[in-house]
Amino acid sequence: ADAGATIIVGTWPPVLKIFQAGLKKGSFDSDSELSDGSKMVIEKVYPLDAVFDSPDDVPDEIKNNKRYSGLDGYTIEEVAKAVEADYGKIDILVHSLANGPEVTKPLLETSRKGYLAASSASAYSAVSLLQKFGPIMNEGGNMLSLTYIASEKVIPGYGGGMSSAKAQLESDTRTLAYEAGRKWGVRVNTISAGPLKSRAASAIGKEPGQKTFIEYAIDYSKANAPLAQDLYNDDVGNAGMFLSSPLARTVTGVTLYVDNGLHAMGMAIDSESMSDRNQ
Questions:
Q1: Which of 68, 115, 124, 158 is catalytic?
Q2: Of 196, 211, 235, 246, which residue is most buried, by most CB within 10 angstroms?
Q3: Closest CA to 249 of 198, 186, 168
């Protein structure tokens, strides 16, 4: 937005009205301030349910659900056509969504339905987005997604098949980088961010009187990462800006770690077994 980009957003239909109301009330103003003091403007918000590729995929139970009442055109295919009609070509496509209905369950207790739901919403949705939006992306454009270190390391508490979904997302990033690069001249990258206390992350494993999953993860990162400093939204945003800019014109198929270096560590230095060495 600082560079003059037009910002459009797709959001889950059941929360569309809540999101729009928050915009009107200025709930996101503190996160929307640009370098000149003005506020970033979201030009349009589309209802988007990324588990449905086309209208034929939407079951009657969703069509008749009161949370979807009065809404249509929210499949990926329909939103891509609407964006093309409204704006023509686009330069940047951001996949920032995930859902694991059984995320608090260990993998050994995860059902097939829960596992496949996590994969569908968190990984295949990126494939489908690029399938439908790729044809309207300008050459040199970039698709960006967000992943997590649980794709390659064991993170207890991040269950329900979500670790598997993130591994799929990273693998697909590499394959899509090749295919979309050759087909449209489009780059595909993903950011593996360290622990941030987002609303979504704060909802995982929230028990009365205990720290949340993300609070434990933040404490662990500060204790063990090479850079013992806080991680902020802007840090991830700056990395995304780089990957989406001409500065990264030769960068594609990359998982970029923005985690204070935590991914590089093979040993927990705050472990009790290391106490004598750390003194």
A1: 158
A2: 196
A3: 186
